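hey so i finally got around to running the thing on that chain from the lab meeting. sorry it took forever, my laptop kept dying and i had to restart like 3 times. anyway pasting the input first so we r on the same page abt which one it is
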Amino acid sequence: MKKFARALTAFFASMLLVFGLAACGSPVKESAKLSQEKNGLKIVMTLDAEDDKVQTFKQETVIDTAKFDDSQKQMIKSAVEKAQAEYKKVKGAEYKTSEDKGVLTETITLPVGDKETLKQAIDAKLVPVQDKKVDYLSLKKSVEELKKNGWKEVK
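ok and heres what got predicted. didnt touch it at all, straight out
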C-alpha cells in the first residue's frame, strides 16, 4: 500500500510539473480599457494583448445626435461613409454603426496583432503612431500615451 501511495504521489507531482511547465510557455493575456469624453462624444477603447503585444484594438464611440440639426447630421453621415471606405481597405477591420433614439454608436475593431493589418492601419492613419516601421503595438506604451492625452483607464 505504501508503494502505491508513493507511486500515486509521484504521478501527481509529475503531472503538476508538466502542467506547470506547459503554462510557462503560454502567452500572458492582458487587456486595457480606457475612455474619454469630448465635445459630446463618449469613446471607449479596449486593447487586448498577449505578452504586451496588442492583438485587437476595439473602439466604441457614442454620439448623442438628438440636438443636432439636419446639416450636422449630414456631416456625420458623410464622415461615417468616408470612415467605412477607409476601414474596408484594411485587412480584417470591422466598422459598424447603429442608430437608436437619436444616439449614433460607431464600433471599430482592428486585428492589429497581424503585421499586415497593423501596417495598413498605420499607413491609412487609423492607428496614430510616430514610428511607421513598428512591428507591434505595446500595450503598456499605448496605455501610457493614451493617459498622457487625457484618456482615463476604466477598471
